[in-house]
Amino acid sequence: MRRVFILAAMVALPGCGGGSGTPLVPEQYQVCSVFLPAPPPTLLYPEQGAVGLPDGNFALLVEDAGSVYSIGIEVAGSTAPQPLSPTAVPSPLPTPAATPAPGVTPAAFGVPALMTNTQYVVTGTIDVASSCGPTTTLGIGSFTTR
């Protein structure tokens, strides 16, 4: 299964065949020859590309996770995301964090102990069969521990 990384601009997604990429059409996110039933979740905390994060034991926040995506984390370059379990949303929200859209409540997932000085990729997996396999996993952000 090929991983697809969603950039903040979300202008294009490469397909599994390694072609020139498939542009995103609003409300119709096509990945690996399948239209996803829901847009991928947005990473709120840690912010995309954050560095110097604690080595685990914090709440990872996403927007619009709903119940169609399972959230995971993996060492950059790996192909085996570790699923994260839902947890209580901290109050106040950790900083710095991306601001959720008005009216949207973030979802929180507990991050276990992590290796120091390591880049991690946050993934969203949806149970939709495609040319990539029985599920589709998207990279929704990354961060590096201190």
Count of distinct structural domains: 1
Helix-strand sequence? EEEEEEEEEEEEEE
Level-2 CATH architecture: Sandwich
Largest sheet: 6 strands, mixed
What name does CATH use for the topology? Immunoglobulin-like
CATH level 1 name = Mainly Beta
Helix content: under 10%
Q: How many beta-strand runs?
A: 14
- What value does the Rg take, in angstroms? 15 Å
Mean pLDDT: 76
What general outline do the C-alpha atoms trace? globular
Number of helices: 0
What does this structure look like?
By secondary structure, this protein is mostly beta strands. It is built from no helices and 14 strands. The strands form four sheets. Strands 1, 7, 9, 10, 13 and 14 form a six-stranded mixed β-sheet that branches. Strands 6-8-12-11 form a four-stranded antiparallel β-sheet, with no helix packed on it. A hairpin with a 6-residue loop joins strand 9 and strand 10 (82-83).
Search tags:
Immunoglobulin-like; 146 residues; single chain; mainly beta; 6-stranded mixed sheet; disordered N terminus
Give a concise summary.
By secondary structure, the protein is mainly β.
Topology, please?
Blueprint: E1 4-5, E2 12-13, E3 22-23, E4 29-31, E5 34-36, E6 42-45, E7 50-53, E8 58-63, E9 69-75, E10 82-83, E11 85-87, E12 107-111, E13 119-126, E14 136-145
Parallel strand pairs: 1-14, 7-14
Antiparallel strand pairs: 2-3, 4-5, 6-8, 8-12, 9-10, 9-13, 11-12, 13-14
